[in-house]
Design goal:
The structure holds two protein chains of two kinds.
Chain A (H helix, E strand, L loop, with lengths): L2 H14 L5 H13 L8 H23 L6 H21 L4 H26 L7 H16 L4 H19 L18 H17 L6 H16 L9 H18 L11 H13 L7 H4 L8 H20 L9 H16 L9 H28 L3 H23 L2 H34 L1
Helix pairs in contact in A: 1-2, 4-5, 5-6, 5-7, 6-7, 7-8, 7-9, 9-10, 10-11, 10-13, 10-14, 11-15, 13-14, 14-15, 15-16, 15-17, 16-17
Chain B lengths: L2 H24 L5 E9 L9 E6 L9 H7 L2 E15 L2 E12 L8 E7 L6 E3 L4 E3 L14 E7 L5 E8 L4
Parallel strand pairs in B: 1-4
Antiparallel strand pairs in B: 1-2, 1-8, 2-7, 3-4, 3-5, 5-6, 8-9
The chains are: A mainly alpha, B alpha+beta.
Chain lengths: ~450, ~170
């Protein structure tokens, strides 16, 4: 059932139950329904859009059939006219979103069409990244000046896509991975890559830092583990860098305002801790990357990320677990512990790796329990569910991972089930006690 | 005039200037000559129909080329007529070959700029003429190795401009 059908049904139900009046139900329905996507699109608009699409496709196909007969200047002129027409129409119809949004999208893509057209006319080839960088650079003014955030989103995504694609390659103007014969890429590649990163960051609209920061820290992590001038190769430094960057993203990727949800950064941090639990099977000789050393710059960046994450924990309020001083201390403790675990991998042996795996399991268990207790205190069902999910996933993984046999796994499942039942009982009692205390 | 119109004007100006520059490169008053080419991977759905080309001059081995290519990401290659000929519908055409490389070009015609293309077993030279776009009904899109030659010229910035892909005829 669609959202609007369900809303209509709920409003009718509320009216029938006497909770709201029919007038209020109508007003709520009107307000919600008029705000839907393509709300201002009437049937005639859809027919007009279909007609425009068919005519455009027909013109394109006829032009394609006669492509060789059309002169170079005519092709370029037609493109420039189309470009100017689409942009002018987008500006004139700015107040009509149904027309302005598709036109502005078309405007954003026009430079790419132009670059492709010129490449065809003049048989251009060369660096594969250059046309995309040129497109992004040409679109920056539109992204900055448009009243809608659409062009900014598209331009920022384009910059980040080019950053990932270019820097992970080894034969283009953004390449940062070593060439085939192990040669370092020129320094200006790093300058250009950082400029592209900054542009992607700056153009991302709104106050929300989470997504661009996430894209940036994941890119930095890729640069540390790939064969670049800042690579790190020891397992301890890779883990330390990964955990520190995850903590930085989690801490800075959302505001400190009340009720801010962690979302993707929290999932990534949990995933990283979860991955650490598999170090139970670590064998030092299996994972060692022979003949490859940490680069000084990579080592420096890793330690800087670690120091930055520690300072962040000290000065910035955490929302790993919402509300309360105890939760804040627990969250900070868990985040710090997740990073400090990496130290067990320096000169690691099987024993220290097993300790790390146990600590990772404990971090997950503490986080899960913290979510459940905090959730029950604040009547936050989502938080309780998250805690149950983390503990269940950890427990199921461990049973399969460690016990293996049906009998042992079965007994372990029963014990965990009983533990959950006990925890649920305690949580419920605590909640009731809090409610009673509040009533008094 | 609104700021958005100024932005649009700048975008259009870029394409007008670039188009003008490309047209002037194509019409540079310099001699046209031919290059032996090896068509590979003749189609790309995203870019349309084109023939991807590598050339005999893509792996220059004469003169100082191996040493120059070993230490320079950008360099210059000397193209010369050494008597190699190919038969075309318009008669016999001289096919130029790479005879030398240099970090800086000598002040004489025939030097073209190239960038290093990493490759195995040895790096190659890339000239920016490695794609030839054509109509989907053009029979040259199925060109096989050694069956076509590329008609090119050198523009004012010592860059090769690809003008045409010519089918060789049987002598």
């Amino acid at each position: 059932m669609s959202y609007y059908k369900k809303l209509k049904k709920d409003l009718l139900g509320a009216t029938a139950a006497g909770i709201i009046t029919p007038e209020q139900a109508d007003k709520v329905w009107e307000r919600s329904y008029s705000g839907r996507t393509f709300a201002s699109f009437k049937a005639v608009h859809w027919i007009a859009a279909a007609s425009g699409l068919f005519i455009a496709l027909g013109v394109i196909l006829v032009a394609a059939h006669n492509w060789d007969k059309i002169g170079d200047i005519a092709k370029m002129g037609a493109f420039l006219l189309l470009f100017a027409g689409a942009a002018e129409a987008a500006m004139r119809l700015e107040e009509k979103p149904a027309a302005a949004i598709p036109l502005e999208t078309l405007w954003f893509f026009m430079p790419a069409l132009g670059i492709g057209l010129y490449a065809q006319i003049f048989n251009l080839s060369g660096d594969p990244v250059k046309p995309y960088l040129a497109w992004a650079a040409l679109s920056v003014p539109l992204a900055l000046l448009s009243k809608r955030p659409l062009a900014s989103y598209l331009c920022s995504i384009l910059f980040f896509a080019v950053l990932y694609w270019g820097t992970l390659g080894s034969t283009n103007m953004l390449s940062l991975t070593l060439g085939r014969n192990g040669t370092l890429q020129p320094l200006w590649h790093w300058g250009l890559a950082l400029a592209v990163l900054a542009a992607g960051f700056a153009l991302y609209p709104g106050e929300k830092l989470g997504k661009p920061l996430g894209a940036a820290v994941i890119w930095l992590f890729f640069m540390l583990v790939a064969d670049t001038a800042i690579k790190v190769r020891s397992e301890a430094l890779v883990l330390l860098a990964g955990m520190s960057l995850a903590v930085l993203w989690l801490s800075w990727g959302r505001g400190e305002e009340e009720g801010a949800r962690a979302g993707l950064p929290l999932t990534v941090w949990l995933g990283a801790v979860y991955a650490m639990t598999f170090f139970w099977h670590y064998r030092p000789d299996t994972y060692h990357l022979h003949g490859q050393n940490n680069t000084p710059l990579g080592t420096l960046i890793t330690w800087a990320a670690f120091a930055g994450a520690l300072i962040t924990l000290a000065v910035r309020k955490q929302r790993l677990l919402p509300e309360g001083k105890t939760e804040d201390h627990l969250a900070k403790g868990l985040l710090a512990a997740s990073m400090l675990c990496a130290f067990l991998l320096f000169d690691a042996n099987e024993g220290s790796a097993k300790i790390m795996a146990v600590l990772a399991n404990l971090i997950l268990a503490a986080f899960g329990a913290g979510c459940m207790i905090s959730g029950s205190r604040n009547s936050d069902e989502k938080l309780i569910n998250r805690g149950v999910l983390v503990i269940t996933l950890t427990a199921v993984t461990r049973f399969i991972d460690l016990f293996g046999g049906l009998l042992k796994s079965g007994v372990a499942f029963i014990i965990t089930g009983l533990a959950f039942a006990g925890l649920a009982y305690l949580v419920n009692r605590g909640r009731k006690a809090l409610i009673e205390a509040a009533k008094k | 005039m609104s700021k958005l119109r100024i932005a649009l004007g700048l975008q259009l100006l870029f394409f007008i200037a670039w188009g003008g520059w490309l047209l002037s490169s194509k019409n540079t008053p310099s001699p046209e000559f031919y290059l032996e080419t090896v068509p590979v991977d003749p189609r790309d759905l995203l870019s349309g129909t084109f023939v991807a080309l590598t050339y005999g001059i893509s792996s220059p081995q004469s003169g100082a080329c191996p040493a120059v290519m070993n230490s320079n990401p950008k360099f210059f290659v000397k193209l010369e007529d050494r008597g190699k000929v190919a038969d075309t519908p318009d008669g016999a055409a001289a096919v130029y070959e790479a005879t030398d490389c240099s970090k800086a070009p000598a002040n004489e015609p025939g030097w073209v700029s190239a960038t290093l293309q990493p490759g195995f077993p040895r790096p190659g030279a890339r000239y920016g003429i490695e794609r030839f776009y054509l109509n989907e009904n053009d029979p040259r899109k199925a060109a096989r190795s050694g069956s076509v030659i590329a008609k090119v010229k050198i523009d004012r910035r010592r860059q090769l401009v690809l003008l045409d892909l010519v089918k060789k005829t049987q002598p």
